[in-house]
Design goal:
single chain, 615 residues, Rossmann fold, 3 domains, 5-stranded parallel sheet, globular, binds adenosine-5'-triphosphate
């Protein structure tokens, strides 16, 4: 099912699941089979499972847990895969070492050498591992596979082992994949291999929209082999007429998909279209952005005769979506964190910063920060739940012969210390928090993080600044090291405002975290960060700024530039609105920008407004 935003893909998926249960439920139960529904995040999984009445015949999960639930029984294959993976890594590191040019810094060479030693030790250690498990970060020596390993390992098993394919189909004769545009290509290949082998015994369905792909690792368009049925859904049920025209106009320069309809509301017996509003304000980039956004909101409140648009400090009825950039990060209180994981940082860090999935952040954001907050608020139950979920100190195998009361006291003491270090007034750095967690064995760290904690000495001077600001140069092996040392030096209390942004104002969490998110009033703030953002550029998207030399090279090579990525993100943001949409674009020269944007046919001319409208 390939269809635009608000066309009811998720609604259809849930109806499809219900229909399968009604038609095949009894047979599935007897054969101990289940229906798998793969979603992007745990939150989305929870929501879909609630929608199907928490039916145990439906296994709703992320791709990782789905794959692990099938692969975990194949321990011998896993062990062989891990041994091979370590060899591969050592080979890659040695290859890199022999190809280091004269400009590569000594610390990069040292790290390479230490990493080789670590992998060689792991190679030895895995022979003693009895059972491999799946955790947040991979630690082969302890028998733990991480997220990336599960994807690589299980898809390989699926692609190369007929028996494994049969097993998948036997356990899960129906597999639905939601948000299929953001699925890894190798997973699509693997699932298609199962379908090819099992034919009518295996029903596979993808639900998605290539224009809503927001992760660079996603496949976008799913290939359609012969014999597959495409299910079109041409109607839009969410957007008011004004937003629907904009959505169609955004796609006109992309894949040209046109949706019809739009949201309707009942008036007596009749269903009438909701007209709604879609406006663009183009305002000057200066130090008064917040005030200007507030002024625009007051203006819309008046124009729409809707007080809900007035600026609100709490429980804001307007959903505001911003792509964070340096200025916003500074204002929100996590400027250093932004700098560490964005300036001259590896692409994986920059991408993972947008939704807090970058590996340096994971244990902090998913465990240590929530733990610190639970302790501070006196939510003992939550603290305990987090510890049980994340701490190896409470794993059954590690509690044998241990005085449990003592262990709990010890955990409480460490949790209190972590909470203090991460408190708003604390002067502690991220490194301090991580060191304490490491020393006290509070959490099993991703070995990449452990390695850096061992390697990067305290107060290590940061290397040369990125002078030109344009982070468009090639990836340099020392980027990761520099990023990590800046990351360790960040104040730990910047994590809280960062997490609040990711949970509330980030279009990424909105898109992926809350399935099919929709809001009555949406405010999208577009604000390029003085040209340092390479992933997204609204100025380039609107044609206010020329593509760079690198963009042109990428296009010539058939690659994709930030312009396409920005179009898709803009589409996702705008199509969340059920009633009114307000877009605020900050640029250096609003008058020129307005003249240009009027010619694009995105917004009606009368709805492209400037500062003048506010005075
Ligand atoms: N057949 C229908 N009739 C009326 N309303 C519908 C219908 N199908 C879906 N809707 C409503 O339209 C809205 C969008 O539906 P849904 O979230 O399923 O779309 P989607 O295609 O998954 O959207 P997106 O791609 O933007 O996540 C929801 O409010 C849903 O209740």
């Amino acid at each position: 099912m390939v269809a635009g935003a608000g066309s009811g893909k998720t609604t259809s998926l849930i109806k499809g699941l219900a229909a399968i249960l009604a038609i095949h439920g009894e047979r599935l139960r007897l054969r101990r089979q289940r229906v798998a529904c793969i979603t992007y995040t745990e939150i989305a999984a929870g929501e879909i499972w609630t929608d199907v009445g928490n039916n145990p015949l439906v296994h709703v999960s992320t791709i990782h847990s789905f794959l692990w639930s099938i692969a975990r029984g194949f321990q011998q294959d896993i062990a062989a895969w891990v041994a091979n993976r370590i060899d591969e890594r050592i080979g890659e590191l040695r290859h890199a070492a022999t190809n280091f040019g004269p400009r590569v810094q000594q610390k990069t060479r040292d790290k390479n050498a230490r990493d080789i030693v670590r992998y060689e030790q792991q190679c030895e250690a895995i022979t003693r591992v009895r059972t491999f498990t799946y955790g947040t970060g991979s630690d082969y020596a302890k028998g733990i596979l991480g997220h990336d390993d599960i994807i690589k390992m299980a898809s390989q098993l699926m692609i190369h082992r007929p028996l494994f394919r049969t097993l998948v189909a036997q356990q899960f004769p129906f597999v639905f994949v939601d948000e299929s545009q953001d699925t890894f290509p190798v997973i699509v290949e693997a699932l298609m291999a199962v379908q090819q082998q099992e034919q009518a015994r295996f029903c596979l369905g993808f639900f998605g929209d290539p224009m809503q792909r927001i992760y660079p690792t996603g496949i976008g368009t799913i290939p359609k082999p012969n014999g597959w049925r495409a299910i079109p859904k041409p109607e839009n049920f969410r957007s008011p007429t004004a937003v629907l025209s904009l959505a169609n106009a955004i796609r006109r320069d992309g894949d040209n998909l046109v949706q019809v309809g739009g949201r309707k509301k009942k008036e007596g017996e009749e269903a009438v279209p909701v007209v709604g509003t879609a406006r663009l304000f183009v305002l000057p980039t200066d130090a008064h952005r917040d005030e200007r956004v507030a002024q625009v909101r007051a203006w819309v409140a008046k124009a729409n005769d809707d007080e809900m648009w007035q600026p609100a400090a709490k429980n804001d009825p307007v959903k505001m979506l911003v792509i964070v950039h340096r200025m916003a990060a500074k204002r929100l209180g996590f400027g250093d964190l932004y700098g560490a994981l964005n300036d001259k940082a590896p692409d994986a860090f920059k991408n993972g910063f947008l939704d807090a999935t970058a590996w340096p952040l994971r244990s902090l954001v998913s465990f240590l920060l929530p733990l610190a907050e639970a302790v501070r608020d006196g939510r003992d139950f939550d603290a305990m739940r987090l510890l049980r979920l994340h701490s190896p100190l409470l794993v059954k195998a590690n509690l044998q012969g241990v005085n449990v009361a003592e262990r709990l006291n010890q955990l409480q003491a460490v949790s209190n210390q972590i909470s203090e270090l991460m408190g708003p007034e604390s002067q502690a750095t991220i490194r301090d928090v991580l060191m304490l967690a490491k020393k006290s064995l509070l959490v099993a760290f991703d070995p990449r993080l452990s390695a850096y904690l061992e390697d990067i000495a305290e107060n290590e001077p940061e290397t040369e600044e990125n002078e030109n600001g344009e982070a468009e140069e090639e990836e340099d092996p020392s980027n990761e090291i520099n990023s990590m040392s800046a990351f360790f030096a960040c104040p730990a209390n910047q994590l809280r405002p960062y997490q609040a942004y990711v949970n509330e104002g980030s279009p990424f969490s909105t898109q992926q975290g809350v399935k099919g998110a929709e809001f009555d009033r949406v405010l999208v703030v577009l604000d390029d960060d003085e040209g340092t953002h390479v992933q997204f550029s609204y100025e380039k998207y609107f044609g206010l700024k020329q593509p760079s030399a690198k963009d042109k090279k990428t296009l010539e090579a058939g690659g994709e530039t930030g312009i396409e990525r920005t179009r898709r993100l803009f589409y996702v943001c705008c199509t969340r609105a059920r009633q009114d949409l307000l877009v605020v674009l900050f640029v250096a020269d609003p008058a020129a920008a307005i003249a240009h944007i009027r010619g694009l046919g995105l917004f009606p001319e009368a709805n492209i407004l400037s500062q003048d409208a506010l005075s």
